[in-house]
Amino acid sequence: MRKGDCFLGLDLSTQSLTALVVSPRSGVVRQLAINFDEFYPRYGTRGGVPPSPDPLRVHVDPLMWVEALEDVLRRLQKEALTRRIAAMAVSAQQHGTVYLNRQAATTLAGLNPSSPLVSSLVRIFSRPSCPIWMDASTSPECGDITAALGGDAEVARLTGSVATERFAGPQIRKFWKENPEAYGRTAHIALISSFVTSLLAGCIAPVDAGDGYGTNLADIRSGTWSQAAMDAAAPGLQRRLPRLVVKDCIVGRISPYMVERFGFNPEAEVVAGSGDNPCSLAGLGLVGVSDRRAVSLGTSDTVFGYLPEPGTVDRAGGHIFGAADGGWMFLVCFKNGSLAREQVKNSYDLSWEEFSRILMETPAGNNGRVLLPYFLPEITPVVLAPGVRRFGGLPADDMRGNVRGVAEAQAMSMLLHSAWTGPRPKSVLVTAGGSENLGLLTVIAQVFGAEVRALEVKESAALGAAVRAAHALLNRDKPAMGWQALWGTMVGAASAQVIYPSAEATRVYQSPGGLLDVYAACERFAIGRGPDPDAHIQTFRGAFTAA
Ligand code: XUL
Asked: How far does the centroid of ligand 1 lie from the alpha carbon of residue 296, in Å?
C-alpha cells in the first residue's frame, strides 16, 4: 500500500462527530459529520445529551460515541479515504470521564475485525455513563478538594483552575463517594479524547496536557499528575489515570483491528488526542501566537488564547490548559452558547438568517435592556439555578429585543470575563457553528472593538486535530516544520471573512457608563453580589438614548 498523503482530524463534540481529511497540499479533502440526535434516536439525546430530571446532572452513554466512530470510519472507508491517512488525532469535548474495567486493555488490544466496535466493547465499562462537561452536580466535591488542597488560590495555582464542577477530579470523587464498589472495579479512567484515541490505537492512550490540565488533577508547571491533587480526589487514582504527555506525540500505529475493519493504512500513526479547545488553538493557527484571541461559538461558547507562561488564573472563572507546543493557553467557558441562541431563535420561530438580520438592524446597546441567558445552569459566572433574567423593561415577547439581548449578553460576558488575560485584543478569530452568522460576528466586533475574522473552515477543532497529527508525524525524527509554517501550508490559504468594528457602536459598550457597565451590574445583581442595576440603566439611557 502507498504511504498515506493525508491527515485525519476527528472531533467528538457534544452534539456530533466530525471527520476532516486534510491534505498538506490541497487543504480540506473531505468533511463529514454525524449528528447524535438525528442518527441515534435510541439514546434519546437532545443536543447530544439525554434529558435529565436534575438539570445539574448530565451523563452520556459512551456506546453512542463508539457507534458514531464506527459509522464515520465506515463512511471514510467507502470513499477510499482511510487508506490515504498518514496520521490522525482526536479532538473531543473536554473534561468528561470514561470509566473502564480490568478487561478493557486486553479487549482493546485483541478486537475481532469481523465484529462491530459497539458489540465488542459493551463489557469494558465499569460505569455505564460518563459525566460530561455540562455536568454541574459536583459542588460538594469541589468543596472537599478545595479544603484538602488549602483553598481556592492554592488549587488555582497548582492545577490552573479553582476546583470546577465539570472537571474530572470532582467527577471522579463523586463517583468514588457514591459508588466505591464500582470505583474499585475501575482500572482506567480516560478523558473522552484519550478514550477515542484508545479505540484507534488499540491500547490505553495517554492524556495530553491540553485536556489533562482541565481536570484539577495535574500540576500545570511540572506537567505531571499532582499526588496531592489526586489524593484530594480519590484513593488509588494514580494507577487509574493514563500517562500525561505535555507536547503533541505519537501514541503508536493504528490498531490491526482498525486496519482490517476500516481499511486504514497499516503504517498510519495515531497521535495523542486533546480537548476541542486546545485543538481549536492549533486549527486557528494560534499555537505560539499570544497577541490574538479566539472565540468559539459552539454548544459551549469559549474565549481562549495562547500563553507563553502559565501566569495566574482568574479565580472568578478562567482556566489554564496546555498548548500543543508544551506552552499554555487560557480559556473561559460559557455553557449557554448555541443552545441559548437556539432557544431564543426557536421561541420566535426565526431562521438563522432572520436572527442575523435582526442583529444587523437593531441598535447597539438595545436601549439599555439586558438579557441574562441562563437557560441552563451557567459556568461563567457560576449560576446553578437556571432561568432567564431580563432587565430595563425588556418584555419576553419582544422578539427583536430578545435576539439582540442574547447576542449582546454573550459577547459582553466573554469580554468581561476574559479581562484578566491582558489588554483588550485588536484581533479576534471566531470559529465553530455560530461563526457562520454575520449578525453574531458583527456584535462581537462591536462589543470587543476588535477586527473579527472567521475562517472558511468552521470546524477548527477537527482541523486542529489534523494539524496536530501532521505536526507530530513531520517532526517525529527531528524538528522539520514549526507550527506556524505547517498551519500556513495546511490551512493558511483558505479564505477568511473579516468584519471591522464601528467606533460608534463600540463606544456604546465600552465608554464609562456604557452597556458593559450595565451588563456587569445586572450580572452582579443576578448572582446576589450587587444592588438592583436600575440606576446604571438610567445613566446609560441618559447618555446613549439616540444610539
Ligand atoms: C471547556 C468546556 C467546553 C467543552 C465542550 O472548558 O468545558 O468548551 O470542551 O466543548
From this structure: 10
